[in-house]
Automatic annotation (TrEMBL):
Lineage, highest ranks first: Bacteria, Bacillati, Bacillota, Bacilli, Bacillales
Pfam hit, one: PgpA
GO biological process: lipid metabolic process
Entry protein name: Phosphatidylglycerophosphatase A
Residue ranges constituting the YutG/PgpA domain according to the UniProt record: 47-185
GO molecular function: phosphatidylglycerophosphatase activity
InterPro entries: PgpA-like_sf (IPR036681), YutG/PgpA (IPR007686)
SUPFAM superfamilies: YutG-like (SSF101307)
CDD domains noted in UniProt: PgpA
Chain intervals with Basic and acidic residues compositional bias: 188-198
Amino acid sequence: MYERFVPPCGGQPQFEPKEVSSLSESNAYRLNSKEVARATEEWMTRRGVSKGQIGQLVMLLQKDYFPELTLDECIANVEAVLSKREVQNAVLTGIQLDMLAEERKLLPPLQNMIENDEGLYGCDEVLALSIVNVYGSIGFTNFGFIDKFKPGVLKKLNEKNGKDVHTFLDDIVGAIAAAASSRIAHRKQAEREEKEEAVLPGDGSGEE
């Protein structure tokens, strides 16, 4: 930074380096992780989506594979997905874009594409896939299924009522459910392997 210095004899103004105080450095931007997590949950609630509703989507995706699965377990896995910073970033970004489109504060043609959920506009799905990827490629199948059939809360989010815009949020909610389903599948596999390994040494077969 520089400050203007005018010589007393009326000469040309000169600019000299201005010392940066340590105070300005102490005021540098710092992200509050707890605030980001709180805002993520708050904005999802404001937009009409609860963790319980996403948990129901997870149950739909996984109940045939794990009959003993409970809704509480599904919700716990949804919460685990939402604790990831990259997921929080995607949620906040998508919701803000939806809201800007509702308020018609975007410039055309982007305003029209998001407002009408244009079929060839795929940025909403690209953002959602960043969530699916958190727990590996297994989530793509789950995401494809619920994105096609739009069950549960996704049906409501996908409705075009001329007022609400959920172009990003419907894909994001589906992606969270798909990621939570992937997390369950990975954990169930790990639990099964642990049980098998625990049985092998003392199975009484006499085999080594």
